[in-house]
Amino acid sequence: MKYFSSTIFQGIILGWVASVLIFVSVVFVGMWGQITEFNVVWDLRVGLFLTAVTMTTRILSFIACFMMPAILAGMLVLNKILALNGSGAMINLLVEASVTRGPLCTLKACFISGKTRILAIVIASVLVWQYTVSLADLYLHITAIGRSQQLPGLMVPSARSLDIAKNCSYDHFGTCSVYLRGMTNPGKALKIYRNASDTLQIWNNDDGIYLLQTSPAFTSYAYSGSGILLKPSCEPISRICNLKARYGAMTNYSCPESLWYASGNTQVILSDANITSEIRDLNTGTIIALNPLHAIITVRYDFERTSKYDSEFVREFHGAQSILLHCQILTSIVEYVVTLGSLKSLPLGNLTNSQQFAFGVASTQGEMLHRAVDDVEYVAHNTGNSTLFANAFAQQWGAQAAIAGFSSGAVEANGKGSGEEYGYVLEVVKEQTVAPLSAVLIYVIIITFPLFIFSCVCLFSLQNNTNWILEFISTPQRLLYQALFKEHHNDDACSKSLSDQAMRIKEIECDNEEPSFQVKDLLTTQNITMNHS
Predict the structure, then answer these.
(1) Among 241, 318, 436, 504, whose CB has the most other CB atoms within 10 angstroms?
(2) Which residues, 6 or more positions from 161, have their beta carbon under 8 angstroms from its beta carbon?
(3) Contact 335/223 with Cβ under 8 angstroms?
(4) CB distance 241 to 258 below 8 Å
(5) Which domain holds residue 163?
(6) Average pLDDT over residues 149-172
(7) What is the dihedral of CA 107, 108, 109, 115, to 10 degrees?
(8) Would you say residue 220 lies in a domain?
(9) What tens digit of pLDDT does each residue of 486-512 get?
(10) Are 262 and 298 in contact (CB under 8 A)?
């Protein structure tokens, strides 16, 4: 019990336990984190991480306070100091520096002479270490940042594939006939065109335009299914087809053989799509729809006098302007995966001949065609550039308008798959803390190695038998009081209560086995001698 009641022995045990725990914690935290480039990442909210750092800093600083008696006693042994000689003021200053560790009184104690100077320097070293740990803590607080990472969670199977009508025939009653396909549901087609459908969505990507199922209603990390990919393109052909205003209501064109000898009058209708890639086989009585789909598009706008148009725009006698476009759309079926807003697809094949025919007829539906023409009118009037106009029109008509008309009749949102091929992955948002590797290493080195060195010095305290004065000047009770109420005296870093107490001491008699020690009236006594056999 004698050893367990000693503050020196307590400091030895506490120092080594703290050193081992810090070492184990550093290894564990290092294994838990991930090093990416020059940063360390932990799957922990930044607030909790910084709170843990602050608690570690405060706890280690408090442990150093309780280790002080053992550290001082260990230094006595290392320097083979058997007797402390000095004046009462020196000893009193050492007491104040040991208990309060105030910068002012610790600095004064470092300049006193005698054997107490070495102990004062040790106290100053502990004080400097505490301030250094606080600075490293502050640096880590400033540089550490928090971020959220989206990660995949549970996989939920779902039959997420488009169901495209397969029994397309060419009679009036077939699923994909002229009368039962295309704009059979104008409201649904308009929603798809505006990308406001609850079941289908149009996805514009660099490699084309996709018709996909809408994303799940809840937040998902990824979802997959099958869809349709369209690669549209248009080019102005007014000059190739010799589009000219003849007389009256005649603005005729006649295209060469490469464009299937298409011809007509642009003033017959405001906008028209003439599909030229459908070939009727008289022997079998069927229509072969080529892929890609080809069409000659007639577009008419009112003439804007303040705009300048290139030669592909032809002025009619009645004041309007016309332009011819040759457009083509390459269609295919794809399998897709959307991960965090990024789409990747793999080809699954082309539409069947009948499906391609149904798509071509849907693309000629007047209502959707007129919407596409209206939506790109600003390009024609504002730029007057036929190439820019053709590109803009290809996106609006070649994909959105055509696919909206096609999907309103021949495409369903939910395929009847087995539910195993496609599905969605729930999203898990994980909070992370990112700190620079340099800040982490500085903090770890500062809190680990000095504390380990102090613990090694404590071991030598077991060889010292004259540590009673250190027990007195550095009792845990006083250290605890100082840690809790260190701002009690704001005008002086040294504790005034200890100075007042020293001035009131008249006589102290201490016996340590055979040696004896007496201090008489510190107001008049100039020297205190400590003898140890």
Answers:
(1) 241
(2) 213, 225, 226, 415, 417, 421, 422
(3) no
(4) no
(5) 159-421
(6) 70
(7) 120
(8) yes
(9) 444 444 444 455 445 445 443 343 333
(10) no
Q: Which two three-digit tokens encode residue 133?
A: 């740990």
Contact 244, 266 (CB under 8 A): no
Domains held by the chain: number: 2
Take residue 457 and report the two structure tokens written for it. Answer: 């010095």
Residue type for position 221? Y
Proportion of the chain above pLDDT 90, given as a percent:
23
Rounded to whole angstroms, how far apart are CA atoms 309 and 385? 6
**Amino acid identity of 377?**
E
| Last residue within a domain, chosen from 421, 445, 477 | 421
Q: How far apart are CA 221 and CA 40, in angstroms?
A: 25
Segment 393-431, tens digit of pLDDT: 998 886 677 777 777 667 777 665 544 567 788 888 888
| Contact call for residues 201 and 213 (beta carbons, < 8 A) | yes
Asked whether residue 533 carries a pLDDT value surpassing 60, the answer given is no
User: Does one domain contain both 278 and 134?
Assistant: no
Say whether pLDDT at 370 is over 50: yes
Q: How far apart (Å, rounded) are the C-alpha atoms in residues 340 and 347?
A: 21
Single pTM value for the model:
0.60
In a domain, 527, yes or no: no
